[in-house]
UniProtKB/TrEMBL annotation:
One Pfam family from the record: DUF6589
Biased composition (Polar residues): 639-656
Segments for region (Disordered): 618-656
Domain DUF6589: 154-549
Phylogenetic placement of the source organism: Eukaryota, Fungi, Dikarya, Basidiomycota, Pucciniomycotina
Protein name, as recorded: DUF6589 domain-containing protein
């Protein structure tokens, strides 16, 4: 029998077996769940059930309910108190509209506010490499008690000599990639500049073990709402409040969730009961949301005004590449935003390389020339020295047009490096970028809360927590869902992907938008339903290929970009005749250092906001307060960490 007719024979045999005995329904039950989740109408399902290809729709509902119960039992067993370390939780808010076709009293269209997430069980290889004594609740609280005496040194966020050399290799690898893809190829690959920077701290690409939680109700984004979420999490684990809140629990979430949680913890403190004070719960910022928000702020900072045709903002570069500028700055698709920023960055590097090589007048061809490897490396080094070195930025001071370009190249390079480090699974490279962003967020507009929460996360991971506990958190920030190297995503990004599939199955169900059905049947079974959906292609004889979309510059786009760059003279010092002089954009990294030095010199305990909301003084009468939230109580001793305010020569504002 041929390979093509083998599935047909198997299906025919299954249909006959099902017709003789309805309990032999393996294929039919699988198809009924698939069709129910993918939006097949009940009429079509009844016809296929009549032919013996699927089970009844009620059978599919009962099967999903049984799978949901099994998933909830799995959650309870994984979160059992017998485990040494509680699995890490990842949660996010979810808003959906429940529509009613015929509105009546008590049945109206309403907005559902909920919270959803999953538990992540660290791999056994990671746990074997950690010291169990550093993972206890006692070790966690002992580490936080030392925060009150911690000397916050701005050097914690500044690069040392090794970090500066590594950042230099990062930028050169970005230049080398553009050189290799769009400009020229070296004659011998061996000996050329590497296309990828050196590894710092790589995470294992073993497929993670995650289990979805049941969708939970949340009244609103307030302290009361997050309190309801905490109670719902404790209820799903089937643990007593004292057991759930009485052990160390790590949670990943976005900045808004962390702020609301800190608010309710302050309201409940001090308290003798662990389920009231919430001091044993530690929140970690999601890497994806951090990247999206800071990258969007950097993009808008350099975007410019499209109404002024003489302004060389990012909008003009996007327009030259055929990308609608007005759609990039919108907070709708952050993945495309990062791809567009990478295209602008690589197109600018491509033009800089052609200028360094003196090829502006040559015709752009699809076939790349081959040059000696020594010359290829020399051009990469020359491009770095001319557009990324400290000397180049100092020389460009006083010339706003060129200075703005070099500042944007520096800022965009951090976004590109953070995105590539996350895909690579190198948490060490990502933390190096976070340290730079900790300085830049002090001056970037609109990032007031990140300017405190991001340095706090770095202090926790590198200075405050025990080494093994810090490693556990670092190596749990990124995961590889498929178990393949170079295919890592942040855990909150993975949750956003599951949110998409939840809404997809929810809207394709064809039985109306019932939140109860969404909670009871679909939320706990999303990984199973997605696997069954992907297996449709495999069962039909085709291959299921997971594509990695990489932004590429087309030949036509490069030609149009060159026309724009030459007509506006983007690499020249002075503006064209008749054009108004552009306003110089401040270097956010240097400006952030200046602001930090001003805080240290004028406000003794201002950097205490870097450790604010850490429960390091749960035995004390007061907590460090946010100056934006409440004033410091009079007569109370200041428990804020001390600040090391070095002399101006120690923290020089020069980029060297």
């Amino acid at each position: 029998m041929s390979r093509e007719s083998s599935p047909i024979a198997s299906v025919i045999c299954s249909m006959l077996t099902f017709a003789c005995n309805r309990r032999h329904n393996g294929l039919q039950l699988e198809n009924s769940i698939r069709f129910y989740a993918c939006g097949v109408s009940e009429t079509v399902n009844e016809y296929l059930h009549y032919l013996g290809l699927t089970s009844h729709r009620k059978t599919a509902v009962h099967a999903l309910r049984s799978l949901a119960c099994e998933a909830q039992d799995k959650i309870a067993s994984c979160m059992a108190i017998s485990t040494d370390v509680a699995p890490i939780l990842c949660i996010d808010n979810l808003d959906m509209e429940e529509r009613i076709q015929i509105a009546t009293v008590g049945k109206q269209n309403r907005m559902f506010h909920g919270t959803w997430g999953y538990i992540h069980i660290p791999s056994s290889d990671l746990m074997d490499s950690l010291n169990p004594n550093d993972l206890t609740l006692t070790a966690y609280h002992n580490a936080l008690k030392n925060v009150s005496s911690l000397v916050i040194d701005p050097n914690f966020f500044l690069p040392n000599d090794d970090d500066q050399e590594h950042h230099k290799l990062v930028v050169k690898s970005q230049i080398a990639q553009v050189m290799y893809k769009y400009v020229a190829r070296p004659s011998h690959p061996k000996g050329r500049h590497p296309l990828h920077p050196p590894e710092v701290e790589l995470i294992s690409h073993k497929k993670p073990e995650i289990h979805m939680l049941k969708l939970m109700n949340e009244s609103d984004n307030s302290a009361e709402g997050i309190g309801q979420v905490m109670d719902a999490l404790q209820h799903q684990t089937r643990l007593d409040p004292a057991d759930f809140f009485g052990r160390l629990q790590l949670i990943d979430g976005d900045l808004g969730t962390a702020q609301i949680f800190n608010a309710i913890r302050v309201l409940r403190s001090p308290s003798e009961h662990c389920d009231h004070s919430l001091n044993n719960i530690s929140f970690t910022l999601g890497a994806a949301h951090t990247l999206w928000n800071i990258a969007h702020t950097i993009l808008t900072y350099h975007f410019g005004n499209s109404g002024l045709m003489d302004v060389l903002g990012v909008w003009r570069y996007l327009e030259a590449l055929g990308i609608p500028p007005e759609k990039v700055a919108q907070k709708k698709d952050f993945t495309k935003m990062l791809q567009y920023m990478e295209q602008v960055h690589e197109a600018t590097l491509w033009y800089c390389l052609r200028d360094v090589m003196g090829h502006h007048d040559t015709v752009i061809q699809e076939e790349l020339p081959i040059i000696p490897t020594a010359k290829w490396n020399y051009m990469v080094d020359k491009c770095y020295d001319r557009f990324f070195s400290h000397e180049a930025r100092r020389a460009a001071r006083g010339f706003p047009k060129l200075s703005n370009l070099l500042t944007r190249l520096q800022d965009f390079s951090t976004v590109i490096e953070a995105n590539r480090a996350m895909k690579r699974g190198d948490i060490g490279r990502l933390i190096n970028v976070w340290k730079m962003w900790s300085i830049m967020t002090q001056s970037l507009p609109g990032l007031t809360h990140y300017s405190a929460y991001l340095p706090r996360l770095i202090l926790l991971l590198t200075k405050i927590l025990p080494p093994s506990l810090g490693k556990l958190i670092r190596h749990s920030i990124l995961v590889s869902p498929s178990g393949r190297p170079n295919h890592f995503v942040a855990k909150d990004f993975l949750l956003e992907t599951h949110n998409y599939w939840l809404k997809y199955f929810y809207t394709q169900g064809g039985i109306g938008t019932q939140i109860d059905r969404l909670q009871a049947l679909f939320s706990s079974n999303i990984p199973t339903l997605r696997t069954m959906f992907d297996s449709l292609r495999l069962d039909s004889g085709a291959k299921h290929i997971q594509q990695s979309h990489k932004p590429l510059l087309t030949l036509r786009g490069l030609k149009r970009f060159q026309q724009m760059a030459q007509s506006n003279g983007i690499l020249t010092i002075n503006s064209s005749s008749g054009a108004p002089a552009p306003v110089e954009i401040k270097n956010t990294y240097i400006q952030g250092l200046i602001l930090l030095q001003e805080e240290i010199s004028t406000k003794a305990n201002e950097l205490g906001r870097f450790t604010m909301h850490l429960p390091f003084d749960e035995q004390c009468e007061s907590y460090p307060s946010d100056p934006e939230d409440q004033a410091e109580p009079k007569g109370e001793p200041n428990k804020s960490p001390s600040i090391r305010s070095g002399s101006p020569s120690q923290y020089s504002m020069d980029e060297d």
